[in-house]
Specification:
Blueprint lengths: L2 E2 L1 H5 L4 E3 L9 E5 L1 H6 L7 H7 L11 E3 L3 E3 L2 E3 L7 E9 L2 E8 L14 E2 H16 L6 E13 L3 E11 L5 H10 L4 H15 L7 H25 L1 E2 L21 E2 L23 H16 L5 H8 L2 H17 L9 H20 L4 H6 L20 H15 L5 H9 L9 H12 L4 H10 L30
Antiparallel strand pairs: 1-7, 2-4, 3-10, 5-6, 7-8, 8-11, 9-11, 10-11, 12-13
Helix pairs in contact: 4-16, 5-6, 5-8, 7-8, 7-9, 7-10, 8-9, 10-11, 11-13, 15-16
The structure holds adenosine-5'-triphosphate and magnesium ion.
The site of magnesium ion has 3 residues, from loops.
Length: 484
């Protein structure tokens, strides 16, 4: 790995230098060849294993934990920071630089009560979902590898420690800005320093002045809106949308109790520690805005409120437009350039009508969409019909859909296009769980198979058909705890 150390050298007051503590008997549990390419790595070598497990120094690495704060479940925590993630620096790759972080690399000055470690099950889940989301075309941080160990760690029971090697275009979170606004009050120069760094690194076309800051914030609003639109379209619930888990670049970030929807349920809660459903699936668009408002608040020392509010006012439109684009593609409706508000509303009703039907009929979200790839939209009889119990309701919806769809010239091409946006394979919680249980038993094959299948989520892969099934009863809507 070749590193540059821009954050480390330019923002010395924004982190604590800390070295990872090694783990016993490190071994590769997973390796992403796709992520490796991003930073010009070829093979998971022994030397790399020793370096990334913290047992040996990595040449060129700096080792630091960043400081930030954030709103957690609505309340402000004045100081957080990387309590179990140690960044090595920005590794250079053919298309840019990626922060390399050892998530679970050991205690840092920000660990407070935690042990600085991650358990194997959570490291494996983070690895799988990072790579799965990427192949589903959802913006996300990436995962290079999971390193297992025989080091015991204690959660509800004894487990073993593991490290996810995370790659991120940036680790800067909304919470970084909140820290320098609220917790380090009166340090507007630091806020500006962080802002200028962010702009120079990631928005080089913008100037480091008020005009640039305004354009940048609008971009953050739009990127966040796009990210949430992706989650809603693909059926992904993040589970812990605290502002310290919101990437400034609009990448999916920090994977804990996340879930892809099995049966469609608008108010699905994937996080065991969120009984009130603050981060329920259907709440995500609203929470995205709430989080942006917290970011805006933190930026008031450098950007006038009126400009921040004007940018925030763009959020809903940006989200709806992106969501419409993704959902029209799923349904096979022609994209509408310059559509009117009325047309958009009609399409939203069509989409909402379908998800309501899915919920009423307890249908699997992904598998139902996938069936559009076999649908003959010119036929009055829909092959989807048999899945619905209330046929009258379905027929009414289908009629409206057909009217909106119009004539499809090349049905085969239309079906293929549906299969290229409606995935066959998603990372269902029960699949991750089965792979994790196998790893506990010393069998890495199911994890590797799942990882490989998720690299091509839109391909048929008939030999892996079993991984596309809706979950068995025990695995339906599986809810995870935060203890990771
Ligand atoms: N085992 C642990 N030891 C020490 N600190 C921890 C531990 N687990 C979580 N934390 C800290 O608690 C805070 C909230 O945790 P959260 O689950 O959002 O983040 P995370 O999953 O640890 O990491 P990241 O956000 O970098 O993906 C963070 O500051 C995190 O570093
Ligand atoms: Mg976090």
């Amino acid at each position: 790995m070749k590193f540059k150390q821009d954050f480390f050298t330019q923002l010395p007051e924004f982190y604590a230098q800390v070295y990872p503590q090694g783990i016993s008997n490190p071994h590769w549990l997973a390796w992403s060849e796709d992520a490796a390419k991003l930073i010009d790595l070829q093979q998971p070598t022994d030397a790399l294993l020793q370096g990334l497990s913290g047992n040996a120094a990595v040449e060129g690495a700096s080792y630091y934990a960043q400081v930030y704060s954030g709103h957690q479940f609505g309340g402000y925590t004045p100081r957080l920071g990387d309590g179990r993630s140690i960044i090595l620096g920005e590794a250079l790759g053919p298309q840019g630089a990626w922060d390399v972080a050892l998530k679970g690399g050991g205690p840092t000055p920000y660990s407070r009560h935690g042990d600085g470690r991650a358990v194997m099950r959570s490291a494996v889940r983070e690895f799988l979902v990072s790579e799965a989301l990427h192949h589903l075309d959802v913006p996300t941080t990436r995962a290079l590898a999971v390193i297992g160990s025989d080091m015991p760690v204690w959660r509800e029971s004894q487990e073993t420690a593991a490290i996810t090697v995370r790659l991120a275009r940036s680790h800067i979170r909304f919470g970084h800005f909140e820290f320098f606004c609220h917790s380090e009050r009166g340090q507007a120069d630091k806020l500006t320093q962080l802002l200028n760094f962010t702009l120079k690194q990631h928005y080089p076309h913008l100037s480091c002045d008020l005009a640039g800051y305004k354009a940048w914030f609008l971009q953050v609003v739009q990127d966040t809106a796009k990210l949430i639109a992706h989650w809603q379209a693909i059926g992904f619930a993040h589970g812990v949308m605290n502002t310290d888990n919101m990437s400034i670049l609009g990448d999916s970030f920090d994977f804990g109790p996340f879930a892809f929807l099995d049966t469609f349920q608008e108010d699905f809660i994937c996080n065991h520690s969120d009984p009130e459903g603050r981060y329920a699936f259907g709440q995500q668009p609203g929470i995205g805005l709430w989080n942006l408002q917290r970011l805006a608040q933190a930026l008031t020392p450098v950007i006038p409120s009126d400009d921040l509010i004007a940018a925030l006012n763009q959020y809903q439109h940006a989200l709806v437009q992106h969501y419409l684009m993704l959902m029209r593609a799923k349904l096979g409706l022609a994209a509408r350039a310059n559509s009117t508000a009325e047309q958009d509303q009609q399409d939203l009703e069509l989409i909402g009508g379908f998800t309501v039907l899915m919920e009423k009929n307890q249908l699997d979200y992904s598998n139902t969409w996938r069936r559009f790839g076999q649908l003959d939209p010119s036929s009055a009889h829909s092959s989807l019909r048999d899945d619905f119990i209330d046929l009258k309701e379905f027929d009414a919806w289908y009629q409206t859909y057909q009217a909106r769809l119009g004539k499809v010239a090349d049905i085969e091409a239309w079906q293929q296009a549906r299969n290229s946006v409606n995935p066959k394979y998603i990372l269902r919680n029960y699949l991750a769980q089965e792979a994790i249980i196998a790893v506990e038993e010393g069998n890495l094959a199911p994890l590797e198979r799942l990882h490989q299948v998720l690299r091509q989520p839109f391909a048929e892969q008939v030999e892996h058909e079993d991984l596309a099934k809706r979950p068995p009863d025990w695995g339906q809507g599986l809810i995870m705890s935060c203890s990771s």
